[in-house]
């Protein structure tokens, strides 16, 4: 009986050490927020969006990112928004480690390539290396300036 109890205890402790989160809370371990640096833009005008990934769990979290091509780990939910092309000369994967409440922050340059209305709303999603889960940001809205008549 003691042998089975110790074996069961080993598996429970191993699961806690290796995973650190329950399956239900694993999807909430990171919170993504974005903030554009402009409230109004023209079609084709580049603008920056501050990207923040915060460890919103009670435990230290880690995730994989690329040193240069990290923008490829971000996607938008709106086809009217596109990323500025990015060139890499040196690129390697590394592990970002965040303690509770710490933030991984980047600045992504994007543009509005088309519009259907006078405003464009979008979210940005972050997918860490070797993960299938995408962590989606808050929704932001930028106004679109009218093109000036020639």
Q: How are the secondary structure elements laid out?
A:
Blueprint: H1 2-19, H2 23-26, E1 30-36, E2 40-41, E3 46-55, E4 61-66, E5 74-76, E6 81-83, E7 93-98, E8 103-112, E9 119-122, E10 124-126, E11 135-136, E12 140-144
Parallel strand pairs: 2-12
Antiparallel strand pairs: 1-3, 3-8, 4-7, 5-10, 6-8, 9-12, 10-11
Structural overview:
The protein is mostly beta strands. The chain has one domain: Immunoglobulin-like, CATH 2.60.40.10. Helix content is 15%, strand content 41%. The strands form four sheets. The protein has a four-stranded antiparallel sheet with strand order 1-3-8-6, with no helix packed on it. The chain has a three-stranded mixed sheet with strand order 2-12-9, with no helix packed on it. The chain starts with a helix and ends in a 6-residue tail after the last strand. 15% of the residues are buried.
């Amino acid at each position: 009986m003691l042998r089975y109890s110790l074996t069961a205890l080993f598996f429970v402790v191993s699961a806690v050490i290796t995973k650190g989160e329950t399956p239900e809370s694993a999807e909430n371990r990171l919170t993504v927020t974005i903030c554009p640096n402009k409230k109004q833009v023209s079609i084709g005008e580049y603008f920056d969006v501050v990207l923040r990934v915060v460890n919103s769990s009670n435990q230290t979290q880690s995730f994989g990112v690329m040193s240069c091509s990290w923008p490829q780990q971000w996607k938008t939910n709106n086809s009217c928004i596109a990323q500025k092309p990015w060139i890499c000369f040196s690129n390697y994967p590394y592990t970002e480690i965040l303690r509770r409440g710490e933030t991984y922050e980047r600045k992504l340059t994007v543009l509005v390539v088309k519009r259907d209305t006078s405003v464009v709303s979008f979210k940005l999603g972050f997918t860490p290396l070797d993960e299938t889960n995408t962590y989606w940001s808050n929704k932001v809205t930028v106004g679109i300036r009218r093109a000036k008549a020639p």
